[in-house]
Amino acid sequence: MLLFAASAVHLLSRGNLANHLLMVALLLQTASLFYSADPLSRAMFGTFSFGERTMYPLGKVDGGIGRDQLVYNLQHLELATIQDAIFAHIRPTPETTISTHRDAWFGFNDGVDPATFRRTLAAGAVMPHYLAAGDIISLPHPPREVWYIEYPNFVNEHELSTLRERYDTAHVWEFRDGGYGIRVHQFRLKPQA
User: Fold this and answer.
1) Domain boundaries, the chain
2) Over the stretch 15-29, which tens digit does the pLDDT of each residue have?
3) Are 99 and 137 a contacting pair, CB within 8 Å?
């Protein structure tokens, strides 16, 4: 950071237009680590909503969204904070069924500390059932309750409509931190199911 600051002072003191443009580009690049605010990237890639904030879907140039774009800036770090709040609310046990978009499972199916309900890999962790919506619906005896985490970097409507075939929506919460947000759906098995 000190080297960058010294370089910035040196470049700006020279009064050269090219140096000023370079500094603007560097500042935009630095800001893009924390905010999806670069107008050129917005025009090129678009954005998707993450609560009240937006992120670039950089993982796919065609405008699709998925998990790939999360590595391009640090906004994805909010996911961990919000996930911990979600798990503290759900208070999972080994009988709890949690679902999300099928492509979101990478690194998601962690155990949960039975006292704090924070995600952990430690021995003695509670391991809820992590199942995709299609797998839940195909079970001969589906669970009576399912918690669906609607990650903002996926299109979740297919999974949600799949669950609604056999489940009623009991409640929908939005967990927020610093303007970022993730919705969680609590489903209960329909009486005829």
Assistant:
1) 1-31, 77-189
2) 778 777 877 777 777
3) no
